[in-house]
Amino acid sequence: MNTANMSKPVGFDQKIKLAHLGFTASELRYTAKNDMYTKLDEYLISEIKGDKARKNAITMLMKIWCLVAEEHRQLQQEALELFPHVSAEDKLVLHWGMTLIAYPFFRAVADEMGYLLKLQNEAPSQQLGRKIKLLYGDRRRVEVALGAVLGSIKAWGITELKTKNVYTLPAKVTVENDTLKNWLIEVLLRVSEFKTMPINMLNNQNIMFPFQYAINISEIDAKRFKLERQGVDTYMVSLA
After folding, report:
1. Which residues have a Cβ under 8 Å from the Cβ of 204 and sit 6 or more positions away?
2. Which run of H or of E encompasses 168?
3. DSSP three-state, residue 225
């Protein structure tokens, strides 16, 4: 086993509820960062009794929606501005994108889950576990984090259990909002190893498996992204 994998950070410690993410995003628009810890503690205390578990949940919620790296600050602000004005389904897109940004471990699980669902229409947790342990090491912390990610995705209403430990995707969430599509493009470009992608690749990312969307050239914000034509009908997209 590659010992370097044993030291890769995981960080996704427990299942996170969609309602808790929604509360965080909503409150953050009106509450100073330093006051958010108290707000979240007061909000969660009735649902998460254990101090350690509640502290872990607060840490994760803050990392996803509040304590973002400088290069992602504009994405965060745009998501917070969009949040109160979009549908519940579109809110899920924002939560998903912010979680992808915050947690590389979550991205790795989503990427493998999307790959398996595309390949065989189901994602057995055993197969997921084998791949993730190759990336992060065969250790208890990785098993716990994988369970937390899978539990969160199921709790968000994205996946279902077909049989014990076999996940399926009952339906995809359709994304039609042009502003949201452009936000998603930037998320993809920032979290991907590819900083330039053809449009058809943006439309076919494993990590976006819960969503059905089609980005075409006319919808892309030319001020936000650089478009380069290659060949007859291929356009490459990168950050401007």
Report:
1. none
2. strand 166-168
3. strand
Burial (CB count <10 Å: 0-12, 13-18, 19+), residue 119:
exposed
DSSP per-residue letters across 96-150 = HHHHHHH-HHHHHHHHHHHHHHHHHS-EEHHHHHHHHHHHH-SSHHHHHHHHHHH
The neighbouring-strand residues paired with 21 are none
Mean pLDDT of 145-164: 95
Helix (H, G, I), strand (E, B) or coil at 34: helix
Instruction: Read off φ and ψ for residue 172, nearest 5 degrees.
Output: -95, 150
Residue position matching structure tokens 């979550």 = 106
Structure tokens at 44: 């969660």
Query: What is the β-pairing status of strands 211-212 and 173-174?
Result: parallel
For residues 146 and 91, what is the distance between their CA atoms, to the nearest angstrom?
23
For the chain, the structural domain boundaries read 1-67+103-169, 173-239
The amino acid occupying position 51 is D
Whether the full predicted model's pTM is greater than 0.90, yes or no, is yes
Other CB atoms within 10 A of residue 200 CB: 12
Model pLDDT for residues 68-110, shown as the tens digit of each residue:
999 999 999 999 999 999 999 999 999 999 999 999 999 999 9
Q: How far apart are CA 29 and CA 80, in angstroms?
A: 7
The answer to whether the CB of 189 falls within 8 A of the CB of 237 is yes
